[in-house]
Amino acid sequence: MAIIGNIIKGIIHASEIISSEFDAAEEQREVLKDLLETAKNTEFGKAYQFEEILKSDTMERDFRAKVPFHDYNQITEQWWEKVQAGEKDITWPDSPDYFALSSGTTGKTNKRIPVTDAMVKAIRNAGIQQVLALRNFDLPADFYEKEIMMLGSSTDLEEHNDALEGEISGISASNIPFWFQNYYKPGKEIAQIDDWDKRVQRIAENAANWDIGALSGIPSWMELMLQKVIDYHGLNNIHEIWPNLQVYTSGGVAFGPYKRSFNALLGKPITVIDTYLASEGFMAFQERPDTDAMKLVTNNGVYFEFVPFKPEYIQADGSLVQDAPSLSISEVELNQDYVLVISTVAGSWRYLIGDTIEFTDIKRAEIKITGRTKFFLNTVGSQLSVNKLNDAVQHLEKEFDIEIPEYTLCANRINDDFYHCWYLGTESNIETDKLVNALDEFLKNANKNYKVARSKALEGVKVNTVSPSVFHDWSGSNKKKGGQVKMERVMGQDKFAEWEDFVASKL
C-alpha cells in the first residue's frame, strides 16, 4: 500500500476545500499594487512616478498611461545595462541573484534577463500551485511516491558581477527545495554536466536505477532523451524501463506537433500537462484534464496586459507601437489573439515577452499560446499564426499516417513570386506533391486570409522533407542543445537562406 502517496494525495485534495473563490481581476490588481509599492524607490519607479500611480483610484489605467512598452532591447539599453553591470535599485530593489540567459528561437546572442530572489520564489510558488492542481487529475496514490525526471539546461551556473547566470530551467533546478531532492532526477551531479550529449548519455546509463513517474521538459529534447534510453537498453518503448511513468509536463512550445512521435516512444498512454515557464517567469499551467488550455498564474508576482494582435500595432521587428491599446484581464474577450505584456518581481516593466495568446475561458483565466509576434506569417497577407501552422502539420500526420515532430517555413521570393516554402522533419517517404496539395487545401479551408492571398500575391507552396535530426543539429550549431532552445517555426528570408545552406551540407 502506498502509505506516503496516500498522505500526499490527501493533502493535495484537502487544499481544494480551503481554496477561496477565484477572482483573476482582483488578484491582478493586488499584484500590480505590490509591484509598484515594492519598486517605487528604484530609479525606474521614481522616473515613472510609481508613488503617484499608487495614490490613484484608476491605478491600472494610470500605469498604462505613464509607463511605456519595452521589448528586451529597449529595456536593456535604457535600464538593464546598469543592472547587468551590477548596479543596485535600478528596476527592482537591490540587485538580482541570477540572470537567465536566453537566445530563444531568434538568434545566437544571449539575452541576460534579471531573475531576482522574489522571482525564484514566485516560480517555486507557481510550481506548488501546479502540484496542488493534480487533485483534478485521476492519478493513483503511488504516483506521488515516484521520481520526477526534470530535463532542462545545466545547473552549472556561471558567476558574473556577483550574480549567477544560466538558462531558467537550470536556475530553477539549482533551487529545488531540500525536501524534493530525493524525488528529483537526474540528480545534482548529472544535472551539472554542461554538454548535452554527455548528460543524456549519463541519464541513459543510470535509467534502470530510477523509478520515474513523471517527466518535465521541452518536447523535442525530451524525445531525444527517451530515444537514447530506449536505444541504450535495447527496449521497445520507455515503459519497459520506467513502468510507472504516468505524467509528462510539457513546456516551452506547443505539444501538438510532437504528440504523435512522442506517443510512439510509450508503451501505454500517459497524462500530458502543459505549462508556460519562460525566462521571465512562470506564466501559466494546465489546471484540469478536460482542456488543453492553461490557467494564468494571476496571484504570483506577474501582472499581465493584453494588446490586440493587429497589424497596425506591430512593428516590423515584432515590437509594439507605443500608442497600441492594452487591456487588463477584466477587459479581454474570447477568440481574440493578444500580444502578452508583463510586469514582474524581477524588474520587467510592461515587457513584451514575444508570445501571442488567446483566451479560451475568461472566468477561469485559461489561455492558449497562439504564436510569436516575430513568427506571424503575413508577408503577403496570409495572416497565419503558429497555431494554424501547427494545425496544418497535425493534419498531414493524420492524413498520411506519418510523424512530423519538426518543421519550419518561410514566405520566400523566388523569381519575383512569393511561395510558402516548407521543410518538414519526417522519416517517412511521402510524395511531396501530395504534401503540397494537402497543406494548401487545409490552410485555404482553415484561414480565409490565406485563401485570399493564394488568389493574389502568394503563388503557391513548396515542400521539402528532411530527417528530424537535421533540425536538432541546426539548433545545436546555432545555440546549444537541450534546455530552453526551440526551433524557429517561421524564418525571414536571410535566415532561411542560412537554413537551406545548412540542410544542403547535411544531405
From TrEMBL:
InterPro entries: GH3, GH3_C, GH3_M. Residues 389-492 form the GH3 C-terminal domain. It comes from the Bacteria. GO terms for cellular component: cytoplasm. Residues 297-364 form the GH3 middle domain. GO terms for molecular function: acid-amino acid ligase activity. PANTHER family: GH3 DOMAIN-CONTAINING PROTEIN. This is GH3 auxin-responsive promoter. The lineage of its organism: Bacteria, Pseudomonadati, Bacteroidota, Flavobacteriia, Flavobacteriales.
